[in-house]
Amino acid sequence: MLTLFAVVGAVSGALVLGAVWGLYGTFRARVEGVVVAIAGGALLLSLVLDLVQPAIEKSSMITALLGVLAGAGIFAVVDYWIDEKWGSQGGGGMLAAVTLDGIPENLALGVALIGAGAHEAAALAGSILISNLPEAASGARSMREEQAFSKGHILAIWARTAAILSLAALLGNTLFAALNQDLLAFTSCVAAGAVAASLTTEIMPKAHEQARHWAGFATAVGLLLALVLHSLGGG
Fold first, then answer.
1. Nearest C-alpha neighbor of 11 from the set 145, 142, 169
2. Mind listing the pLDDT tens digit for each residue in 121-164?
3. Number of DSSP helices (H) and strands (E) in the chain, helices first
4. Is 66 exposed, middle or buried (0-12, 13-18, 19+ CB in 10 A)?
């Protein structure tokens, strides 16, 4: 349980640190784009090695396929609604997108930690942490530029978001622990499908827009980083 709280606290705390970075820090857009691309590459490998592949081994290929398709479909529908409601560029839309991305990510993190030590979930946790920092920084900065809230209010909003995502990880770890192997595998793949969809619609386009020709290289760096973390976890 201590491992669970430590990992979840680090991952969700990255949202608060990212918000502080966006509100009070100064950085070039290209640097932010490189960080986002690294996060995208890390998430890409992590969702395959830490969510989909274990699901196939514990259940079946059909279970994995259905789960991934369900997660991607759910994300696509909700993401479309967010774009229609808030617009894709505003701070409110970014906050909603981070929350939408973060819920399946943190549910998956909680599921991955069932019966596992910190090292075995290191790749997934590290990838989510890396992605949370620039996403929160960009969203907080956009909200500040819109002058809708004070800096203190914006920081409080992101702190509450971090708390919600922490709860998602805790629920994923406790509620899904009683599921049989097939349902647990399906749940993991639903989360993987949602994260995969978010890579295409939210993370990679932003990385290319800001980092331009360095985005591809940074994505490869992120993929290798996740591979190293996964190997350290004994994967």
1. 169
2. 666 677 777 777 877 887 788 788 777 678 898 899 889 888 88
3. 10, 0
4. middle
Give the tens place of pLDDT for each residue, 26-62: 767 788 788 888 888 888 888 888 789 888 998 999 9
Neighbours of 77 (CB within 10 A): 10
Task: Output phi, psi for 180, to 5 deg.
Answer: -75, 170
Rounded-to-10 torsion of CA 135, 139, 140, 141: 100
Tokens for 78, please give them.
Answer: 């909700």
Residue 21 phi/psi, 5-degree rounding, is -60, -45
> Taking 80 as the threshold, does the pLDDT of residue 95 lie above it?
no
Cβ atoms of 83 and 93 within 8 Å: the answer is yes
Q: What is the pLDDT of residue 233?
A: 60
Q: Are 186 and 66 in contact (CB under 8 A)?
A: yes
Cα torsion 95, 97, 103, 108 to 10°: value is -130
As a whole number of angstroms, the distance between CA 56 and CA 187 comes to 12
H or E element at residue 87: none
CB of 23 within 8 A of CB of 141?
A: yes
Grouping H, G, I as helix, E, B as strand and the rest as coil, residue 108 is helix
